[in-house]
Design a protein that fits this description.
single chain; 437 residues; seven-stranded parallel sheet; 16 helices; 38% helix; binds nicotinamide-adenine-dinucleotide
């Protein structure tokens, strides 16, 4: 059988380069090491635990996703990355305080071997941070070339066959697309003159895409979704995904909101607040970084509720999002949602959600899945925006002519249908007439 897409097999090692070796990154890396040793399970990871139904419901075919599509195995992953702090991943994980010390000690030597390369960093874009492990260069172009050199050196030193890069760094200040982002040529000229509108994250993304690496943005900052990067990604056939991983409160929002809308239950207000005490919380305490996060968090409800189609139900919705930095909680965030809803004849009701979650525990499997699926996309020759990976992101990248899909269940269907399509299996529409004819 000829398949619709030709997928190169995942031979050799896959290097996973993470920009920012903080809470999320170290929880991902330590987790993979622990899982590899059989010390823990990859809960939350679709690539490791998910199944996919094939054919009719009567056929009983539901292989694991990792047995259905050719993904890199966990044993074949090699981790690396950059950070502005010099500490290796063991001490960074201890600082982050997400995983227990006893668990980290079980994978200590592997974690200690992952040392951050000097970062491209400028405090202008992340006000609350400063660190010593930072590159110097004559221009942003020079810094980009240094990142390209890091990528090549890492590939060679670790004998990697392929690489992917994910921005797991801090949330940068809010930025809008400007002239320097509008074409590759303008962007490259901007690099030469160290244009202010090019934040550090874009320098990494540019280097990755130039080298043909898939790139994902796990944070909300403006990084890869600008015409210059899309053009570069298409020239080097690099897959792209982002932005801002869908974990805690937004994950629950995109589960609850489609349910309310499915039953035409109106929503007058949605008030979301969080307390968070990790370094991410500290960075987001800066109003400019918070603005980036706020924009990303707020868009989901508008797209799910479609107020232009349902003005009486959702036209007058007040949506407020707050994040308060509260050190005692560390990575264990607490979120509250108060949702003012109304039903038949307009009678009001309320829904209260109190989610005591662990941010990085929710984020780690998503980083892993994104890396493995982006590598699959690259081997399958799928370049540019990978809309099927919207499932993982709060502000999914999308083609300019369509609105982003935020409903978690539609996103999952899109993801699984993409895998079926890649392997020449029938797409599942859930029509189901055939069982009753
Ligand atoms: N944890 C979640 O559930 C979640 C969900 C969505 C998005 N995010 C985003 O993921 C990112 C990482 O979160 P975290 O909790 O790991 O934060 P963190 O503060 O623990 O880690 C971020 C790391 O990035 C480093 N960094 C900052 N700028 C850098 C640069 N230019 N180059 C290299 N390193 C740089 C910092 O030094 C820090 O170690 C944040 O932007 C956060 O908003 C997290």
């Amino acid at each position: 059988m000829t398949l619709p897409v030709d997928i190169a097999p995942p031979r050799g090692k896959l290097g996973v380069l993470l920009v920012g070796l903080g809470a999320v990154a170290t929880t991902t890396i330590a987790g993979v090491f622990a899982i590899r040793k059989g010390l823990a399970k990859p809960f939350g990871s679709l690539t490791q635990m998910g199944t996919i139904r094939l054919g009719k419901r009567t056929e009983g075919r539901a292989p694991k996703i990792k047995d259905f599509v050719p993904l890199a195995g966990l044993d074949d992953l090699v981790f690396g990355g950059w950070d502005i702090f010099e500490e290796d991943c063991y001490s960074a994980a201890r600082t982050a305080g997400v995983l227990e010390a006893g668990q980290l000690d079980q994978v200590r030597s592997e974690l200690e071997a992952v040392k951050p390369m000097p970062a491209v960093f400028d405090q202008r874009y992340v006000k609350r941070l400063d660190g010593p492990n930072v590159k110097t260069g004559k221009s942003k172009r020079d810094l980009a070339e240094q990142v390209v050199a890091d990528i090549r050196a890492f590939k060679q030193a670790h004998g990697c066959d392929r690489l992917v890069m994910i921005w797991t760094g801090s949330t940068e200040v809010f930025m809008k697309q400007g002239p320097v982002h509008e074409s590759l040529d303008a962007f490259e000229r901007g690099l030469e003159r160290s244009d202010e509108a090019i934040p550090s994250s874009m320098i990494y993304a540019y280097a990755a895409l130039r080298e043909g690496l898939p790139f994902a943005n796990a944070a909300p900052n403006l990084t890869a979704d600008i015409p210059a990067m899309l053009d570069l990604a298409s020239r080097t056939r690099s897959p792209l995904a982002g932005n801002d991983m869908k974990t805690g409160q937004t994950l629950i929002k995109t589960v609850i909101a489609p349910g309310l809308k499915a039953r035409l239950i109106g929503v007058r207000g949605w008030y979301s607040t969080n307390i968070l005490g990790n370094r991410d919380g500290e960075v987001l305490d800066d109003p400019e970084s918070f603005k980036t996060k706020e924009e990303s968090k707020k868009s989901a409800l508008d797209y799910i509720f479609q107020p232009h189609l349902y003005p009486e139900l959702y036209g007058d919705l007040t949506h407020v999002v707050r994040i308060n930095y509260y050190p005692p909680r560390g990575d264990n965030k607490e979120g509250w949602d108060n949702i003012d809803i109304f039903g038949w004849l307009g009678y009001p009701m309320q829904l209260k959600i109190n989610f005591l979650c662990r941010d990085s525990i929710l984020a780690a499997p998503i980083v892993l899945d994104s890396a493995l699926f982006l590598d699959l996309a690259k081997r399958a020759g799928m370049a540019g925006i990978q809309e099927w990976l919207s499932f993982y992101f709060k502000a999914p990248m999308h083609a300019p002519e369509v609105y982003p899909e935020h409903d978690l269940f539609i996103q999952l269907m899109k993801l699984k249908n993409t895998l079926r399509y890649m392997q020449g299996e029938e797409l599942i529409t859930h029509l189901g007439r055939e069982y009753y004819d």
